Amino acid sequence: LVGPPGAGKTSIAGKLAARAWSEQRAVRVITTDLARAGGIEQLHAYTEALGIGLRSAADRRELKAALADAATADLVVIDTTGANPFDAAEMAALAELRDTVNAEPVLVLAGGVDSEDGGEIARAFASLGCRRLFATRLDILRRLGGLHRVHARLVYSPEMTFVLILLLLVLGLSLLGIYEHVRFHKADAGYRESSQ
Fold first, then answer.
1. What is the reported pTM?
2. Mean per-residue pLDDT, 113-128
3. 55 Cβ contact partners less than 8 Å away, ≥ 6 residues apart
């Protein structure tokens, strides 16, 4: 998962892991977002509740090792550090990580972005090979026209064809429900063990 800072990559990573777990798929989560305050803790809360663990990778070597450990998984979700799409050094670092893995980069972008800015951001991430999008924060939007215009511009862009995946509030709430369900049952199982 790639995108600008604060787009919701970590939340999406946790929700993708919860969805795969609820479908009884083997899932592994890796984060390269080691600098942001609270980033690892947020993702750790999701993965710990699911009992799937979390690997962190500070560089290409550690990322390769984490991927080798996850080779048998049905799904591997990699949460990356937010990158400014207009900062060449940050995009180069992200491209280096992309080159380390044989995976599809998926852009995560907040739904309330202006259509012009969103188009420029999406085109910058398209240079990394992004072809799909998770639009976040749709539950707090009143108008989706900007996203529609961003999508329309990208679909007809010669640089890429963009498939827009809208994560509706219903999906977010259902995944949060799965997380709470798992947390409740694990807590309940711990209570029953301690009372016996």
1. 0.76
2. 84
3. 28, 29, 30, 31, 66, 69, 70
